[in-house]
């Protein structure tokens, strides 16, 4: 477990979005990439998770245009969605 309270809080918020699809997307993104983030990436993610789940998912699916403030390397990784694991039942 990470001892940094900021990282622990971000992890919790990433996985407790309110919509299961957003939990998988945002939480999966956090789990995959956060260990390599510096201060700038952590700041970006902290602002990003303040957005509404419906907006994040619409941007990722391309049904709404992505606001300029989110464009860049972090978004490029997020939109790939290659970190989302969906279990089969």
TrEMBL record:
Signal peptide: none annotated. Keywords: Chaperone. It comes from the Bacteria. Pfam families: Sdh5. Belongs to the SdhE FAD assembly factor family. This is FAD assembly factor SdhE.
